[in-house]
Specification:
Blueprint: E1 2-5, E2 15-18, H1 25-38, H2 40-58, H3 85-91, H4 96-126, H5 131-142, H6 149-160, H7 166-173, H8 188-213, H9 217-225, H10 230-254, H11 262-269, H12 276-279, H13 282-292, H14 296-324
Antiparallel strand pairs: 1-2
Helix pairs in contact: 1-2, 3-14, 4-8, 4-10, 5-8, 6-11, 8-10, 10-14, 13-14
């Protein structure tokens, strides 16, 4: 006998009894249907999100077939089937090692740097007792998040240009040699990381600050009574409280480690081929490939490879996180 009840007092809530139905998939679907019928308002609220996820995440999966076709616009999904040819072309590309290395290196630098500074800023703001001053700090740090990458590119150009850049003008005024920053590829992983930290630290620290708000204030009071100074309270109370959030957000970021921020890279680097050795990533490689020859099969094979590798990496790191930290996404 299957009984489903709503969350009401035991004396008033109605009982829905399933009679004559054997236990199994059919019974579970019947129970689910009854639950939706009695909680239709919750289902209605969730419907827009479910529809968006289906349209933006599941429906495009049918495009995976393009990776195995010699895709032509005129024939669409009826284009000739070529099997793994697109993957062999991709994996045999002479620049494959470079673009994969750059993608992983840049994303790893972004994850480590933004996480470190977001946690550091959150811990510092948590120690600020004045809500007014804390709000001003948050507003100032959050402001870069709303700037588009085109605006950031103009700011970066005004700082790093060889002739009129602020940094080089300052070096010239001090009698030092100007640095051709926009022509030195070795500097740009650090330049991009600095820009990413400047832009995302303010927004990233909000999540960590919210996690710190959930810490019981009595823990800090007890530690203070035991003689712990502010630094020790941060180290032994605040930081351990952030570990689950740090692990969760890091695992989510690792899920996109094979996907570079195309808007950022293209806006800041553009078509400067001198910087390609350290800034040409998988996504910009797809763009360059499509501009030189329209090959949707190669682009789709690249995207599918990124997704599969990201899934494997997330699954592996999640297993490690559960093994050594007892936290994980799933």
């Amino acid at each position: 006998m299957l009984e489903i009840t709503r969350h009401k007092p035991a004396a008033t809530r109605p009982k829905i009894v399933d009679t004559g139905r054997a236990a199994g998939p059919g019974a579970r679907w019947w129970a689910f249907a009854q639950y939706l019928r009695h909680n239709w308002t919750l289902a209605f609220l969730a419907l827009p999100g479910v529809v968006l996820v289906f349209l933006l995440r599941y429906l495009p999966m049918f495009g995976i077939a393009v990776a195995f076709q010699d895709y032509r616009l005129e024939s669409g999904f009826l284009s000739p089937w070529v099997g793994l040819r697109n993957f062999r072309v991709l994996w045999g590309s002479p620049v494959l090692v470079r673009i994969v290395r750059n993608t992983l290196l840049l994303n790893a630098m972004f994850i480590v740097a933004t996480t470190f500074f977001a946690v550091l800023v959150a811990l510092a703001l948590n120690e600020v007792r004045s809500r007014t001053i804390r709000g001003i700090y948050q507003w100032l740090m959050f402001l870069p998040f709303f700037m588009g990458w085109s605006v950031v590119a103009l700011i970066l150009f005004s700082l790093t240009d060889y002739e009129i850049g602020t940094l080089n003008m300052a070096l010239k005024s001090l009698g030092l040699e100007r640095i051709p920053i926009r022509n030195q590829a070795a500097l740009w992983p650090w330049v991009l990381t600095t820009v990413r930290v400047w832009k995302d630290t303010g927004s990233g620290c909000i999540i960590y600050l919210a996690a710190l708000m959930a810490v019981n204030p009595e823990l800090y009071e007890a530690a203070a009574m035991d003689g712990a100074d502010r630094l020790r309270r941060v180290w032994h109370i605040s930081l351990p409280a952030l570990i689950p959030t740090i692990i969760t957000l890091t695992l989510i970021a690792i899920g996109n480690i094979f996907f570079a921020d195309w808007g950022m890279i293209y806006a800041l680097v553009g078509e400067n081929a001198l910087l390609y050795p350290t800034t040409d990533v998988i996504d910009t490689y797809i763009l360059h490939a499509l501009k030189s020859s329209v090959n949707f099969g190669i682009a789709s094979a690249t995207g599918l490879s990124q997704s599969v590798l990201s899934f494997v990496l997330v699954y592996g790191t999640n297993r490690l996180a559960k093994k050594y930290f007892d936290y994980g996404l799933f």
